[in-house]
């Protein structure tokens, strides 16, 4: 199933909610598979949909076994944080391009943040940058800082305590990622903030380099039409 949105007071109840509540027509349902409920048209609603979906599935009266699949890294990241110990897997192309691999993210603790970085780089290159991208960037910065033993994410931005640009960038990330307005009411960044975002992201990836092969797909997609992807 591929619902556009969850149940609302003014709309029909979501089929999963009917199954959870054991409505007469859905008492036979034991398993639910939700296949990528976020489309390109729902980009701005990714966090809201993920949050509401998580609250629905975490209800105490929910006896259903549920599998959710998605290509949307922001949607996945919200679900990751919401579901805690639930099993999370990545389906990726094999390095040879001849097949697919299923990776358990518990074996690669920071792999989902690589997916977020890929999404951020793609957004930065395309210019389609919104306020919530600062939330995604901060999440990566915080995880990286924790991994390297730093106290805060600012250590991944500034190199010296007296670096005014680094301090400015830290404050910008703080402001742009603070509060729900950037999540539930996303708006496109102004040109100046887009420039700052690109500089922060580029500096971070230069100081904490990741395997460039992880971004090969994005490089291929940027090639002229007609080239194999």
Please provide a written account of the structure:
- With 229 residues, the chain is mainly α.
- It has two domains: 15-86, no CATH class; 111-209, no CATH class.
- The protein has nine helices and four strands.
- The chain has helices at residues 15-20, 46-57, 73-83, 111-126, 132-147, 164-176, 181-184, 191-207, 216-221, and strands at 31-35, 65-69, 89-93, 100-104.
- It has a two-stranded parallel ribbon.
- Strand 1, helix 2 (46-57) and strand 2 form a beta-alpha-beta unit.
- Helix 4 runs antiparallel to helix 5 (132-147).
- The longest helix has 17 residues, at 191-207.
- The protein is elongated.
- The two termini are 28 Å apart.
- This is AAA family ATPase.
- It comes from Acetobacter estunensis.
Q: What overall geometry do the principal axes of the alpha carbons give? A: elongated
Low-confidence stretches: 1-13, 218-229
Query: Could you describe the largest sheet, including whether it forms a barrel?
Result: 2 strands, parallel
Number of strands: 4
Chain-averaged pLDDT: 74
Determine the N-to-C terminus distance: 28 Å
Spell out the helices and strands N to C: HEHEHEEHHHHHH
The percent of residues in helical segments reads 40-55%
User: Strands of the largest sheet, in order across it?
Assistant: 1-2
Number of helices: 9
Radius of gyration: 20 Å
User: How would you classify the helix and strand content by structural class?
Assistant: mainly alpha
Strand fraction equals 5-15%
> How many structurally independent domains?
2
